[in-house]
Design brief:
alpha/beta; Rossmann fold; DNA polymerase, domain 1; 2 domains; six-stranded parallel beta sheet; 6 strands; HAD-SF_hydro_IA
């Protein structure tokens, strides 16, 4: 079966979100004259991931993430008051908007995929629409994609099947049997593919194991996707 539609996640699949996040945190803490220690960074990562998992499970909305993560972090470490925590979100977001460090091989992969006439590339992201669009533009990746689908605009988030139903309804001649979802997250990208009945590629550069959701394919280097797609033709 020849794949024709590739649905790409953004963060830690094409763009190095970890690097962008660290730079934005450093910028924000400097703005408030605070010291960003390893302990604070580690705690923020746990707190933030927990909130995003709740969002994926539809237990909270996106705005709740932004209203809680820095106020709770600041309160836990007695850094500043709640008002400063809310202000921190805006400063952090502005830095993140311009973070576009690339994942290794992402540029080469997109260049080579763009040479295959049977393929159409799309973005499917749970991020913030303004942030993701700015990062894709700044990275030079935007021209490779026919359309960008971000949960904030779609109204549903991965892994909700309604997110992928909306994507399918907005792609001409969409055929889920000729579609691949490529992403690094088992809980949103791969589970989303399972929910929607779409084949998945788990980008797993750290060679992690999973005993829960199972991807259709697994790669540790992005350029391996090229061979996979070519072999399906």
């Amino acid at each position: 079966m020849a794949y024709q539609t590739l649905l790409f996640d953004v963060d830690d699949t094409l763009l190095d979100f970890g690097a962008s996040e660290e730079a934005s945190l450093a910028l924000m803490f400097k703005h408030f004259g605070l010291s960003l220690t390893d302990e604070i960074k580690e705690r923020y990562e746990v707190l933030n991931q927990n909130l995003w998992r709740q969002f994926e499970r539809r237990e909270i909305d996106r705005q709740t993430i932004f209203q809680r993560r820095f106020p709770e972090l600041f309160q836990e470490f007695q850094l500043a008051d709640t008002t400063a925590g809310l202000q921190a979100e805006a400063v952090y977001r502005e830095g993140l908007n311009h973070g576009h460090q690339q994942v290794p091989q992402a540029q080469a992969l997109l260049q080579q995929l763009s040479q295959l006439p049977q393929l159409q590339l799309y973005i499917v992201s749970n991020g913030v629409a303004k942030t993701q669009n700015m990062r894709l533009q700044d990275s030079g990746f935007a021209p490779y994609f026919k359309q960008v689908f971000v949960s904030e605009a779609v109204g549903y988030q991965k892994p909700d099947v309604r997110f992928f139903d909306s994507v399918a309804n907005n792609i001409t001649n969409f055929d889920k049997n000729k579609t691949l979802i490529i992403g690094d997250s088992l809980t949103s990208d791969i589970q989303g593919g399972v929910n929607a009945g779409i084949d998945t590629v788990w980008y797993n550069p750290q060679h992690l194991t999973t005993t829960t959701v199972q991807p259709t394919y697994q790669i540790s280097e992005l350029l391996s996707l090229l061979k996979l797609v070519e072999q399906s033709a």
